[in-house]
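User: My instructor asked us to take a sequence, write out its structure as tokens, and then describe one feature of it. I'm not sure where to start. Here is the sequence I was given:
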Amino acid sequence: YQELDFPNIASWTSRDSRTSGRCCGAVERTSRDPSIVTAMNEPWPRASEFAILSSDVHARWKNFGQWERTYFPKLVGLHVEETRLGYCRMVLPFREELEQPMGIVHGGAIAALIDASVVPAIGSAYDNTIGYSTVDLHVQYHNALIKEDAIAEAWVTKRGRSVVFCESEVMGRTSGKRIARGFMTYNISTLRPMTK
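Assistant: Let's start with the prediction itself. The structure tokens for your sequence are:
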């Protein structure tokens, strides 16, 4: 990835030759000539590489983490800013409770953001009868997150019949620093009835 210079936000343009993924008859990632690198006016240009969701699918994911009951994503304060087919941008708002004693946001909170950010990206291609769970999560920490919100951009890199591969990149909202990067494998299966 090549960094492009513009105020407060670092942006990357893909320099690899990934192929477009297909699922449910839609192209997840639009093609882009990797030899062309231009300054972009969008603060999150990666989103434009993914198809816009239908209104019913968008409605299903726009309030992820904002349920009546307090599940873990709500407990740490995660909320979705944008979801597209195979893509999600999610925010972890800064709270002092997320800091560790050295005054930086705990790596576990950042890992939770990375893991949760891919859920709408994965789920955007499936209906409510499909379940998915983390099989593998690898996190690389690049910089400390200090007293600012974290924003994760997550995307699907490859879909199989029973496995989905994803990546997520976390940035500091005000500093524009790359905080962490995550690589995940998710299992896809038919939902089982929940037990009480």
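For the description part of your assignment, you could build on this observation: The longest helix spans residues 107-123. Try explaining in your own words what that tells you about the chain.
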